[in-house]
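Revision sheet: structure tokens.
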Amino acid sequence: MSRFFKGGTSVLADAYLIKGKLTYEEMFFSFQYGAFLQLLDDLQDKDEDEFESSQTLFTNLKAGEKADSEIRHLIAYIYSVNTPSASDSSNTTLLKEVISQCTLLMIMEAVGKQPSIISDTFYKEIESYSKVRLSFYKKLNKRIKEQVAVLEMSG
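Predicted:
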């Protein structure tokens, strides 16, 4: 739970630094946005967090336990935070849609890099929403790292 608050308060503080004064809705959205970004980061960094013995939603799973339920809840939370409200401008509504789609893509990428974290059935379900096979994300990440290494060596 503390990581949830860590992410939420971090983005809330950033929002205050950027804008100065926030409405209640802006404060609430900023906190929730930061919270789900923290949970998403914990999913992406599961292996590193386990190695460092960090306590997260995804490292607290028992041996052999799958994160299907946790990831389903994370996706539901992301979409609930980004559900447009009547007071949202058209730009805010569009921004929330973009955030939802991008974070879903980030979940797909994280699952593609570590497929053993979820059941085969859930893997196939998530993959059915993707434009590419989830295994592509692991290959893409490897190619990007190789290209970065080449650039670093030449520069």
